[in-house]
């Protein structure tokens, strides 16, 4: 299954929060809401479809397993409340389920970091860290050194972008100790970038800097031989910036559609730029995928009726880009907004390649996109639509990946995501609806669990596409994918973020960050897959595809983790004793370490401390033992975790993003101390003794 380029890892990233003060409905700081997602949580949830919820579609009978458990189970929720020890650190030696395993799962043998509000990256005892690269560091030939007082669009176009999110590391054959780091730059925080920024009247140069600070960076990094330290190699020929003005190719069956034609591009096949790239994935054929997430916020003017589902605002946009390029004004250029909201594919090995937007994977607020192969070598891509009450999707390709290094092989593999079937998930709980009361109390069968199906929406072939949705053409399904999900009755979820298959077990994990509107007012009520009303802390769903095949159209599911303070009865850690786990809130990006443990970064933690990175065992006696590995500085979200044998890599996104903060009045002094501008950056963490992480 492996290709010529031995991939090292896959991961995910995202955007998000202070974890402390003035939180907004979604749990983040007001400044994060404003710049990251265009205050999405202040608007009504855009999914007003009359879809049934999980409780409506309960299978009539309890599963056999449910019946057997029903008599014996005492709700974990009811039993957990009193007398718990401090949930801060997970003990290395503890009695678990009547036995005494000697140690935490391999890969998680470190002393858990206590939750805190320190303005720094705190790592476990015995671990070290370095800043690999910061916003503004020059990576291309000719780019100047960073000077925040003299920043220009031209300088930024050759420098590392802002608000690093998803991270990938790819091998660099022939250059010992070097890898290619690919990073997303999700969005810009103008008030933290520009002294004296006037949001009502941004300058052309500021807008140009913001365009150049979005997008992606590829930068070669070099390992220190004696540690896990990484440093960026500036001016390497593979270093590259992709920005909001880089040329992209639209591919797949909607390319060339009338829905995608604009006055600047009558072909409907050529787009400038990528926006709000949140998380992503690394493909087995050596490219990276990047989800265009909250793209709607960059567009001004009322859209078509169909675009209301995507939250296009009626007035001016936050950043006022429409004043400098009319394509950002939907009233003047109605189709430009249809050209964002896709999964982007980038080839880091070809610095002259034109990146692609894959229409076959649908258009929505893609949190990310992660890939695995079917047994016969076809790609399967999972992607969540990060919005309250929105859906998650799977694409199953019809063409097999080829092995080899030639140009023809590479071209073939770059077309793999243009043909296949896009599905949306529908989940059914196995417990009676009455047992799901919105408090998080476990039902009588002891688990939030059930079955699910992947409902086909559209099949793309080499000759076009076929819609499986009544009343919608294939092109409409691909461009207005949310509406297609509504029509087929997909399950409304609590903000589906990263989705990642466990390479050790094949089980698939879906992070659901939170949804404070669940069960509130006329919004959809709690159901077995989203069991808490006003869900502040989120949960993680574990899917087992039928026969453990990536191309199955049915699956079983269970909630692996129901997040929050372990002292809160409405939490669940896969049945692991809750006095032995770290508190966690708002799971967002997920990744796997080489041992098969799940690593989770958080966005907008609502427990009074900063966001962080956590590892949790997914199998064995320690399944559910969750331990905090690091914490973020003030205002920052943990993104892009990558866990290699000897190194953990994280993106520190939006440090200092606290309401009221500005360049003049910073809320954080990370990473360079007092008097220096706050800068998003990538951090590497390793063991001081040179041994592997967590063993
Ligand atoms: Fe960019 Fe869904 O976080
Ligand atoms: Ca995210
Ligand atoms: Ca159940």
Automatic annotation (TrEMBL):
PROSITE patterns: TAT. It comes from the Bacteria. SUPFAM superfamilies: Calcium-dependent phosphotriesterase. PANTHER family: DUF839 DOMAIN-CONTAINING PROTEIN, SLR8030 PROTEIN. This is PhoX family protein. It comes from Streptomyces cellulosae.
